[in-house]
Structures are given as structure tokens and as C-alpha cells.
Specification:
The complex is a heterodimer of chains A (292) and B (231). Chain A is mainly alpha-helical and 292 residues long. Chain A contains 11 helices and 2 strands, in the order ααααββααααααα. In chain A, strand 1 and strand 2 form a beta hairpin. Chain A starts with a helix and ends in a 10-residue tail after the last helix. With 231 residues, chain B is of the alpha/beta class. Chain B has a 6-stranded mixed β-sheet with strand order 6-7-8-3-9-10, with helices on both faces. In chain B, strands 2-1-4-5 form a 4-stranded antiparallel β-sheet, covered by helices on one side. In chain B, a hairpin with a 2-residue loop joins strand 4 and strand 5. Chain B starts with a strand and ends with a helix. The relative contact order of chain B is 0.19. Classes of the chains: A mainly alpha (292), B alpha/beta (231). At the A-B interface, helix 6 and helix 7 of A face helix 2 of B. Bound molecules: adenosine-5'-triphosphate and magnesium ion (MG). Adenosine-5'-triphosphate binds next to helix 1 of chain B.
């Protein structure tokens, strides 16, 4: 293949990566922004989403699209419910203390991993794509499903953005993010906001996982990469800044795609980590974060 | 209207307030004075449920507030203007107002009434609250609290750092609310401002309510100011 088409292919792969990463990282960023909780279990919520998607598609007979649609709805709901439970049982009791919650979510991540190992097993298992369409470009064929992933992620992100900026629930979340004590003084039930935000953040990771699982397979250890990359993206974008998170997801996803295709996936991860180190040294508030 | 009796409370094991008893009546301004660290802010936060009462009661029209979760206190009609304003600074002026309105499900009528009091806010509805001038921020903090149509209004040093014309505007607002029957508790450090607004003055000293007297009985030369505030 010539360089031009090869680059195009790399960029398309990068877009798929960006799309799923954006969903996952926005969830992490939302949780950190509103709750000031660094959720180390975020990658495991991603993994649980993928595993739940496998169970749902197994249970739904008929055309793969049916099972997949059910998974896209049910897996995030299930993961969101697990997260809300974890919030009420653990984080709330720690008073959302920033350090204690880091330790607690590390513990949670092991619990989720071991639970998945027990109930799902050590194997990687595929989930069928909802449709099988190949787009024939002049230079190469490309999976129509991957393009659908990008579109779906973009639609979900637009939905989240509208929810945060236009809805009353979104306004309440942003007010809580700005000042939780004062939010209480205006009748906002901060505990309920936190449970909702934690569930929503986890559900976003699960949505990303459901979208990717027809490409990547579900495995009980699959949460590591999304966690690392989400942290990278959230730090580069500026902690708690949704716009920054989106831009950074695009940046990291595209460069990861290009570097993986032309060189190696390992080099891509090394460079991303190096980039984060540079950001932390020279611009700790992130490329797009305001002064806090 | 708001009756605080024998209230104690503080942060963790540290008791800041010790046996505070104070009644704020409707249509009256109760000023609270005391040195830095005397516990004035802590008292208002205790009323709002943000500081737990370890003993004593806070009653509003027969409802006991001290055992309610913090987010339910304002729904009984208590508007709070915290020290340092504490606006939702990333939100716009309009959104800050909306949060105030949502507290007790008030609508456009209340919003119009409040914005009529503060025309400068009406011109800046889409501006981020954090970018307002200090005086405008204080107006917004008061406007946000008035969106509850409160029966009790708590103001914590609203004139701090403001120029005289702005202080006069705040005094006018407080006096106007007084005529509508609101019970106001105002933490204020300036003697002249206190004497021009207060019906009753309470002096806090190390978390103890040392003395409460009618404002009419005080003059700028009264010894209480020297004793409890140090001016
Ligand atoms: N969050 C907190 N945790 C622990 N102690 C606190 C906290 N907030 C206030 N205090 C302590 O409680 C005491 C009373 O503080 P408070 O803010 O109520 O004083 P104040 O009368 O409002 O003072 P100022 O005039 O400076 O506003 C002080 O000794 C202060 O250090
Ligand atoms: Mg104070």
C-alpha cells in the first residue's frame, strides 16, 4: 500500500480508538470533576461492561443485532447500578475523602477482576458485531462496524454534553462540582448527585466497552489499558474539564492509531506516557484546564 | 420566628459554639458581632445543617431543623448568603439564579421580582458568575438566596470588601426585606452599619453568646463594641 492510503487507514483506526477512549475518559473526568474522586476502578467498570455485553448477547437469541442492542442498553445499566451500590456502600462511608477513596477504588478494582474471573472465566470471548458490512474504499476495504462505533460514540457524547449543559440534572451536577456545601444550602441532595455521577461515569466506560467488544473480545484483565489511557487523557485535558478531555482523547487516540500502524503499539503507549510526564512537569493544570 | 436554644456544636471533637441561645423575629434585623474566630460563621452553618449540633435545638415555626440533613434545611425557607459569597463561579448568573429558584420550586414571577431588585444582574445573565465584580458577586449571592422567598435570611459579612455605595445598596435591600416580614440574621463588623440596620445585636465571644441587647440601647460609644469586637 502507498503512504497516503496507509496513513488514512491509520487515522481511521485512530478515530475508533479515540471514540471509545473519549467515552471512557469523559466518564472518569466527570467523576473526578464533580466528586473529586480518583476512580482507580474505572478500567474495571469498562471490563464489566464488556463481560456483561457477552452475557447479554449469549442470552438473546436471533439476529446478532438484537443481542447487541440489548447489550448496549443493559450492560451500562448493570454497571451503573454496581457503581451506585459501590458509592453508597463504600465511598459515601469514607466521606469521599480523596486519599481514602483512591485506596478503596484500588480494592474495588481487584474485587471486580476476581468476580469476573470467577463468573466469566479466564478466556477471552468474542461478541458478534450487530452487522457485517465492509466498506470498499479504492485502496482497501474497511469495517463498516468500526465507522458505526465512531458515529455512535459521537452521538452519545453529544447527548452527554446536552445533558450537562441543558438539563436541570446537569445544572445540579455542575453546581455540586463548583461548591458542594453551598449546593446543599440550596436544597441539592449531594449524596444523590454523587451516586448518580458515579453511576453515569461507570456507565460511560461500559458503553465504550460494549462498542469495542465486537472488535476486541471480552477478557477479565482488559481494564488495564482503558484505565491507563483514560488517566493520560484526563491529565492532558485538564482534570475535570470535559472539553479538554475530548480534545485529548482525539489527540491520544489518533496518535496511538498512527504510531501503532507505522511502528508498534508499545511505542505508542511509551510516547503517550512520556507526553503525560511532560504535561505534568510543564503544565500541571493540563493543556486545557483553567487555573484552579 | 427562628429560635436557637442552647446550641452547641463544632468540627469533629472541637466545640466551637457553646450553649448559644438567640431568637430572630420576623420583620427584624438581628446583627451578630464578635471577633475573628468567635464562631459567627459556624453559627450560621449550624443553622444550615452544615455543622452538626451536638446539643440544643433550632426551631423554625415549630419545625426542629437541627436533625435534618443539610439539603432539607433551606426548603423550610432559609436563604443563606455565605461569607465570601460562595457563588457557583463556573455557572452563569442565570444558572445561579435558577439553582436558587429550584430550591423551593419558585418560577418566573419570583425570578422577575428578584431581578427587579438587582437590575445590574439582569444585564449580565449570561456572564459567568466568577467574572463578575466583587459588588456584583455579592448582589448575585443575595439574589440567589432571595429566590427562595425566604422567611429567614442569613447574611454573613455581606459588606466585606465593598465600597460605600455598594454597602448602601445592600443596606437598602436589607431594610426593604425587613418591611416584608423577613427575619434577618446579619453578621456584620462595622458599628455604623450595625446601628443603621439592627433591631437587636448579639455579641459572640469564643462561641458563647455573651450579650444580646436592643439596638436602640446602643450608641457608637457603647462599651460592648470595645469589649466584644475590639473597635
Ligand atoms: N472547617 C473547619 N474545621 C475546623 N475548625 C474550623 C472550621 N471552620 C472554622 N473552624 C474554627 O472554628 C472557629 C470559629 O470560626 P468561624 O469561622 O465561625 O469564626 P468567625 O466568627 O466567622 O470569624 P471571622 O470573623 O474571621 O469570619 C475558629 O477557631 C476556626 O478556626
Ligand atoms: Mg466568619
Amino acid at each position: 500500500m502507498e503512504f497516503g492510503p496507509f496513513l488514512l487507514l491509520a487515522l481511521m483506526e485512530g478515530m475508533v480508538m479515540s471514540a471509545v477512549l473519549a467515552l471512557t475518559a469523559v466518564g472518569l473526568s466527570l467523576v473526578f470533576g464533580v466528586m473529586r474522586v480518583v476512580n482507580v476502578a474505572h478500567g474495571e467498570f469498562f471490563m464489566l461492561g464488556a463481560v456483561a455485553a457477552w452475557f447479554v448477547t449469549q442470552a438473546v437469541p436471533g439476529h446478532p443485532a438484537l443481542g447487541f442492542a440489548a447489550a448496549l442498553l443493559l450492560a451500562p445499566l448493570f454497571v451503573g447500578a454496581v457503581a451506585a451500590l459501590a458509592d453508597g456502600l463504600i465511598l459515601k462511608r469514607l466521606n469521599y475523602d480523596p486519599e481514602a477513596t483512591i485506596v478503596a477504588t484500588i480494592g474495588l478494582s481487584y474485587i471486580f477482576q476476581q468476580a469476573a474471573l470467577s463468573f466469566y472465566g479466564p478466556d477471552a470471548r468474542p461478541v458478534l458485531a450487530p452487522f457485517d458490512l465492509r466498506l470498499q474504499l479504492p485502496w482497501f476495504g474497511y469495517s463498516g462496524y468500526k465507522i458505526a462505533v465512531v458515529i455512535a460514540a459521537a452521538l452519545i457524547l453529544i447527548g452527554i454534553w446536552l445533558f450537562m449543559t441543558r438539563s436541570r440534572a446537569g445544572l445540579v451536577m455542575r453546581a455540586t462540582q463548583a461548591d458542594r456545601d453551598t449546593a446543599r444550602a440550596f436544597g441539592i441532595n449531594v449524596d444523590r448527585v454523587f451516586a448518580t455521577v458515579f453511576a453515569l461515569g461507570a456507565a460511560m466506560a461500559a458503553m465504550g466497552a460494549v462498542l469495542i467488544v465486537p472488535i476486541q473480545q471480552a477478557h477479565y484483565l482488559m481494564g488495564h489499558d482503558p484505565l491507563l489511557l483514560s488517566f493520560i487523557v484526563v491529565i492532558i485535558g485538564g482534570l475535570g474539564s470535559l472539553r479538554g478531555t475530548l480534545v485529548a482523547a482525539l489527540l491520544i487516540g489518533l496518535s496511538d492509531g498512527v504510531i501503532s500502524v507505522f511502528f508498534s503499539p508499545t511505542l505508542a503507549k511509551i510516547l503517550a506516557t512520556l507526553f503525560v510526564a511532560l504535561v505534568l512537569v510543564f503544565r500541571p493544570q493540563g493543556l486545557f484546564g483553567g487555573q484552579r | 420566628m427562628l429560635e436557637i436554644s442552647d446550641l452547641s456544636g463544632g468540627y469533629g471533637a472541637v466545640e466551637v459554639l457553646r450553649g448559644v441561645t438567640l431568637t430572630a423575629r420576623g420583620g427584624e434585623v438581628t446583627c451578630v458581632m464578635g471577633r475573628n474566630g468567635a464562631g459567627k460563621t459556624t453559627m450560621l452553618r449550624a443553622i444550615m445543617g452544615q455543622v452538626r449540633a451536638s446539643a440544643g435545638t433550632i426551631r423554625l415555626k415549630g419545625t426542629e431543623l437541627q436533625s435534618l440533613p443539610a439539603h432539607e434545611v433551606p426548603r423550610h425557607g432559609i436563604g443563606y448568603v455565605p461569607q465570601g459569597r460562595r457563588l457557583f463561579s463556573d455557572l452563569t448568573v442565570a444558572e445561579n439564579i435558577t439553582i436558587g429558584l429550584m430550591t423551593r420550586n419558585h418560577g418566573a414571577a419570583t425570578r422577575d421580582k428578584v431581578l427587579d431588585l438587582f437590575p445590574r444582574l439582569r444585564e449580565r445573565l449570561d456572564q459567568r458568575a466568577g467574572t463578575l465584580s466583587g459588588g456584583e458577586q455579592q448582589m448575585l449571592a443575595i439574589a440567589r438566596a432571595l429566590c427562595l422567598e425566604p422567611a429567614v435570611l442569613l447574611l454573613d459579612e455581606p459588606t466585606e470588601g465593598l465600597q460605600p455605595s455598594m454597602i448602601a445598596a445592600i443596606r437598602d435591600t436589607v431594610m426593604l426585606l425587613k418591611t416584608t416580614g423577613v427575619a434577618t440574621i446579619l453578621v456584620e463588623q462595622r458599628v455604623d452599619a450595625v446601628l443603621s440596620m439592627a433591631d437587636q445585636v448579639a455579641f459572640l465571644q469564643n462561641g458563647i453568646l455573651a450579650e444580646t441587647c436592643a439596638a436602640a440601647a446602643l450608641t457608637p460609644a457603647s462599651p460592648q463594641f470595645q469589649t466584644y469586637v475590639g473597635v
